[in-house]
Known about the structure:
The chain is of the alpha+beta class. Among the domains are: 56-75 and 247-349, Efflux pump adaptor protein, beta barrel domain (Elongation Factor Tu (Ef-tu), domain 3, Beta Barrel); 101-219, Helix Hairpins (Orthogonal Bundle). The chain is built from 4 helices and 12 strands, in the order H-E-E-E-E-H-H-H-E-E-E-E-E-E-E-E. A 6-stranded antiparallel beta barrel has the order 1-8-11-10-9-12. The protein has a 4-stranded antiparallel beta sheet with strand order 5-4-2-7, with no helix packed on it. The protein is elongated. Residues 1-9 have low confidence and may be disordered.
Amino acid sequence: MATTTHNDNSAPPAPSPARTGRSPRRRHVKWILAAIVLAAALFFGIRYWMDSSRYVETDNAYVGANQVDVAAQVSGPVTQVFVRDQQAVHAGDPLFTIDARNYEIAVSKARAQLELARQGMSQESAGVASAQAILAQRRAEATNARNNWTRNQQLMQSGFLSPQGAENARTQLQTAEAAVKAAEASVAQARSALGRTGDENAAVQAADAALKQAQLDLERTRVVAPTDGLIANLTLQPGAMVAPGAPLFVIIASNEYWVDANFKETQLKDVQPGQHVEIKTDMYPDHVFHGTVQSLSGGSGAAFSLLPPQNATGNWVKVTQRVPVRIRVEDPDAAHPLRIGTTATVKVRKAQ
């Protein structure tokens, strides 16, 4: 019977060419990837070093703008509302109107009072003229009585008139002089009641001021936008009663935007008013706004909080504080409208 023998010392099969070339190729790829990562790290490291040497940066920054509270200056029911929430408006655009009928009546009444004041002034002027005419008459009578008294004295000295006749002439003179004084008092009283004449008369001025106030109140029934901006928090509807001074909604003014950036206190030595700033908001990360440092706060944010920290304790830990820096946005863009309260990243160029 034939037997089959196996050669246990036979050599393993040779690796295929594909397997022999894979390991060196992988090593090359790893080296290439490592070189790319190293170059990228070197590039960004150099860039970070250059930026840190030229800029002071923080992402603790928030967009701000002036907020104008819109309130009525007269009371009454709202008749029309011309705007809606989140609508852009320009200064002078109508916002809403208040029922003007009571104020129109007040204007008519004030006009009538002004006319009455002018008529009263005319009557008082006529009274002054009448008193002056009576005074002139009394002075003429006194002059005549004085002449009679003088003639009677001469006649009495010549013996052509008795002392009793001369005494009667003296009494008439005294009476005439007393009448002159009474007429002068009447003139003074009439002038006092009249005061100044024309538009300087006190009663006329008071009536004219009341008319102007009534006209102003009538104008205030039509409320217009005080500035360019964006309507916010509007819930006003026709029929609502409004009171003077009560805030109704807000206009976020668009004529000036700023960013309040909270820099670390260790960064402030490189921040001064007037420096140029690059601003990127999280809303528009690809758009760069430009600004200028306006001012640095006089204290840290914690110093002006409602409950400032009390560091005089045994477990005190030193924490780097942040100081608000106001940065004015120089180039607001209507295509990229800013929203107050949104976050931003600012880079302040250091002074060379």
